[in-house]
Design brief:
74% helix, 3% strand, 2 strands, 350 residues, mainly alpha
Length: 350
């Protein structure tokens, strides 16, 4: 309690050094939820937000980290920080010339955006287009100040925090149109089609599925993008377990939205082997999604397609008969895939 009083006194009435030390104490202290709430109830947020307006970068950094510590793990504190007047300052920091400030601002927005009550406020502040712009510029941030261009490197972690912030916002359906109109879809597709880091691709894939699951316009944009379907099919075959799950989810949404249009496209891209493999050894959700998509793809009208469907029916029955995943079931799938391929189900459909 005495330490809390000393911190409050320094923040409210101390000079620069005292305020810096108090903010640093909030950074390194292992505060319990009760302690965090007590400090916030005593008014600790207001002086920290005032420090954000300082021209002293060290003071700004110390205040940001202190606010992050107070917000972490406390929905109540996240709401109070967002309502304290910090949001316009965070938006301004996204446009500053120091990488450290940009990254801390992104991380703070990420933590605050996990609170449902903050999502609309963050979006209304103009954060979405700024975050997308930072992502679209890759690992360098260009700032034009009176014709003098600064190039500032941004870490991979900052990119992931930015994507995660946008993902948090995407859980609010009313924000989906803003996300789509911001140019975010193009960036996400570039991440997935290109050779980005594994973590970045996983976060991008998760955000993409979140958007298309709530927006027909977003789904159509993905389906129409050059190389997108091929990249999703390849992800099912070669991606991480998390990426495979999101990729099959997106492809299933496509097929469910217009089976007649997308069934042939998926088959021509060779989706079947990857789906069969995923239906056996994917995550629990991926298995279910893969099997649902297989059911959609196996429906047929011609006698030739009926024969192919019978083969697929055998595969599905044998997979269902297996009790869990083991070497035998994997060998079974591999044999069935070869049999299926010989019947040309995995090549261009008629």
């Amino acid at each position: 309690m005495e330490e809390e009083v000393a911190v409050m006194e320094a923040l409210l009435n101390g000079g620069r050094e005292e305020q810096m030390q108090a903010a640093a104490a909030l950074q390194i202290s292992k505060l319990t939820s009760k302690q965090k709430h007590r400090l916030v109830d005593k008014g600790v947020i207001k002086p920290l937000v005032s420090m954000l307006n300082s021209r002293d970068c060290d003071a700004v950094e110390a205040a940001l980290v202190a606010l992050l510590n107070l917000a972490y793990g406390s929905e109540r504190n996240k709401k109070r920080i967002a309502k304290s007047g910090a949001m316009p300052i965070l938006i301004a920091l996204l446009q500053c010339e120091r990488a450290e400030m940009i990254e801390l601002a992104i991380t703070t927005l990420f933590i605050l955006s996990s609170c449902a009550g903050n999502k609309l406020m963050i979006a209304s502040s103009g954060a979405i287009p700024l975050l997308v712009e930072l992502l679209a510029r890759g690992d360098t941030y260009h700032h034009d100040n009176n014709s003098s261009i600064s190039i500032i490197s941004i870490s991979v972690q900052a990119k992931i925090d930015a994507i995660s912030t946008l993902h948090n916002l995407s859980t609010s359906k009313q924000l989906i149109p803003r996300l789509i109109s911001s140019g975010l879809m193009s960036y996400l597709l570039q991440e997935i089609i290109g050779e980005s880091s594994k973590r970045s691709v996983e976060k991008s894939m998760a955000l993409l599925e979140s958007i298309v699951s709530s927006s027909d316009a977003g789904l159509k944009r993905v389906a129409a993008a050059e190389g997108a379907v091929q990249a999703l099919v390849e992800t099912i075959e070669e991606g991480s377990p998390e990426c495979k799950e999101h990729a099959v989810g997106i492809l299933l949404l496509m097929c469910q939205s217009c089976r007649d249009k997308y069934r042939g496209i998926l088959l021509r891209e060779g989706v079947m082997p990857g789906l069969l493999q995923l239906s056996v050894e994917g995550t629990w959700r991926a298995k279910n999604l893969a099997r649902t998509l297989l059911l959609l793809l196996r429906e047929c009208s011609s006698s030739r397609e009926l024969k192919k469907s019978e083969i697929l029916e055998q595969i599905m029955e044998r997979i269902d008969a297996e009790d869990g995943f083991n070497g035998t079931s994997l060998s079974l799938v591999e044999q069935m895939i070869a049999k299926l391929a010989s019947s040309s189900l995995c090549v261009k459909c008629e």
